[in-house]
Amino acid sequence: MQGLVQKNISDRIFDTLLYLIMMIVLIVTLYPFLNVLAISLNDSMDTVKGGLTIWPRQFTLKNYETIFQFEGLVIGFRNSVIRTVVGAIIGVLTASMMAYTLSRREFQARRLFSVLFALTLYFSGGLIPGYLLIRSLGLIGTFWVYIIPSILGVFNVFVIRSYIDGLPIALQESAKMDGANDYTIFWRIILPLCQPVLATIALFVAVGHWNSWFDTYLYNASKPQNTTLQYELIKVLQSTQSATDYRSINSNSQQSIAAVSPDSIKMAITMVVTMPILLVYPFLQKYFVKGITLGAVKS
């Protein structure tokens, strides 16, 4: 009886320490995000004083209003959404098809192609040759310049291939015995079993497309109809910074630009950029830990 009581006390102490550690981890994880949110919702001139934690001292939506007053944000948001969805779908499909091909044991040249693909992870042609290639393909000034150059991610191919190699080979062999061809095996067996890794790759590709702005600067800076949200937000940040620098020189302009500051604009832009990803992530997160192959044939 005494041993049982001591065990219960030790369990309670362990649970208390565990809850305390997890609470600390939660605070450390959430604090930066809440601090950014508080600064984005705080009055700009009050933000300059510093000392903000997780709650705005002077609540205002002026920072967000300032951002969305700039032209091109609506078009940029639309293009970014289309780019992210189309790019993620095409990127996942091409990477999964190539990964399935490289995983086939009867494919004699799979080692050669694996080496060639791996070399692209260590060496690249550089910015200028890449630009010349894009220009020769006639993609400059078009929306497809966002999709075609990144249509296949070699790193994604290797990740998916490793996952496919871990699947029971008996599943494919039994399907072949039933008369299934490679297309049927790929669409009806491989893809359903690869949902966790495909969801992970889709998130990586989508975040890459959503956060990209430099390709817009290189290839579509003169095409407002093809602009992206990130590029427009960079322009907003640069214009705000320029206005602040000008105000420090010319005090007569203080009245017109005193409503915003670069720090508040940065945090507001961070929230605008981050929120769509945060809204999508919970729907994909479950696939990261879900065991799709539970109950399947084990080799």
Sheet with the most strands, sense and barrel status:
none
CATH topology (level 3) name of the largest domain: MetI-like fold
Q: Which architecture of the largest domain does the CATH hierarchy give at level 2?
A: Orthogonal Bundle
- What's the name of the CATH homologous superfamily of the largest domain? MetI-like
Which class do the helix and strand fractions yield? Answer: mainly alpha
Ranges where pLDDT stays below 50 over 5 or more residues in a row are 246-258, 291-299
In what range is the share of β-strand residues?
under 5%
Provide the number of structural domains: 2
What's the Cα radius of gyration? 26 Å
Q: Helix coverage percent of residues? A: over 70%
Span of the ends, CA to CA:
48 Å
The 3D shape can be described as flat
CATH C-level label of the largest domain: Mainly Alpha
The overall strand count is 0
Mean pLDDT: 81
Instruction: Figure out the total of helices.
Output: 14
Keywords: Cell membrane, Membrane, Transmembrane, Transmembrane helix, Transport
Protein name: Carbohydrate ABC transporter permease
Family: Belongs to the binding-protein-dependent transport system permease family.
Pfam family, one: BPD_transp_1
What is the element layout, followed by pairings?
Blueprint: H1 2-40, H2 44-47, H3 62-68, H4 73-103, H5 110-122, H6 127-136, H7 154-165, H8 169-177, H9 182-193, H10 195-211, H11 214-219, H12 229-249, H13 254-257, H14 262-289
Helix pairs in contact: 1-14, 3-14, 4-7, 4-10, 4-12, 8-9, 10-14, 12-14
Report on this structure.
With 299 residues, this protein is mainly alpha-helical. The protein has two domains: 2-69 and 228-288, no CATH class; 73-223, MetI-like fold (Orthogonal Bundle), CATH 1.10.3720.10. Helices cover 71% and strands 0% of the residues. The chain has 14 helices and no strands. It is flat. The model is unreliable at 246-258 and 291-299 (pLDDT under 50).
